[in-house]
Amino acid sequence: MSEPIRVVLVDDQQMVRAGFRMVIDSQPDLTVVGEAGDGAAAVELLARTAADVVLMDIRMPGLDGIEATRRITARPEAPRIVVLTTFDLDEYVVAAIGAGASGFLLKDAAPEDMLAAVRTVHAGDSVIAASSTRRLLQHVAPMLRDPAPTPAVDTPTLQDLTPREREVLIQMALGATNTEIAARLFVSEATVKTHVGRVLAKTGSRDRVQVVVLAFRTGLVQQADLLRDA
């Protein structure tokens, strides 16, 4: 059996962390290896604790989740970070993703959605397209058109993409899974995975969520496209 996925919990509410820990530690393939009550403590903890995935609250006293995410993801072999948010924090979600988060999850998401998010991010995908966050993506899409510049996000051109790779990128930005993309484009799932890999490489995107942000920031996909596809 492979080693369990190592998770760190960062939230200023101890009861929230306790609830997350109970759910995560109930799974044989997941284990909580540390907790922090604010961003500064999280940065310090992750400097000495190996982790695969971090569940990071955005709003915390002192160093917030956005700056903590930026500092943590700047390190070599950084863990994947999923930011925890609510619908009234749209601008913070955009900033956190710009800082290097691999996705976001609603704080009131069902336990199974949280577990799926941890596993999905650890597998190298992002949870920006998870069913529980699709409506939130629709909310933040307009803000991705004119973001405040951040060091974590460059804006590479899309000119090197083939027509098929561009189609795949659009489907990714619309929230489609690899299986759904394969069905829509009438190709195999293995072919889709190959195209996704090439899109990431050609656009210089660190992971799938960053390339989705790129699709909105360059205007390749608009909020209206999301609403039509819903």
What labels would you give this structure?
single chain, alpha/beta, about 230 residues, globular, 11 helices, about 50% helix, five-stranded parallel β-sheet
How would you explain this protein's 3D organization?
There is one protein chain. This protein has a five-stranded parallel β-sheet, sandwiched between helices. The relative contact order is 0.11. It is α/β, with parallel strands linked by helices. The protein has eleven helices and five strands; from the N terminus they run βαβαβαβαβααααααα. Helix 7 packs across helix 10. The model is unreliable at 129-133 and 147-155 (pLDDT under 50).
What would you say about this model in short?
This protein is α/β, with parallel strands linked by helices and 230 residues long.
The proportion of strand residues reads 5-15%
- Described by the principal axes of the CA atoms, the overall outline is globular
Instruction: Give the proportion of residues in helices.
Output: 40-55%
Secondary-structure element order, N to C:
EHEHEHEHEHHHHHHH
Mean pLDDT: 82
* Quaternary structure classification: single chain
Strand sequence of the main sheet, in spatial order? 2-1-3-4-5
Radius of gyration: 17 Å
What is the count of β-strands?
Answer: 5
Q: Which structural class best describes the helix and strand composition?
A: alpha/beta
Distance between the termini: 39 Å
Q: Total helix count?
A: 11
Sketch the major β-sheet. 5 strands, parallel
Unreliable sequence segments? 129-133, 147-155
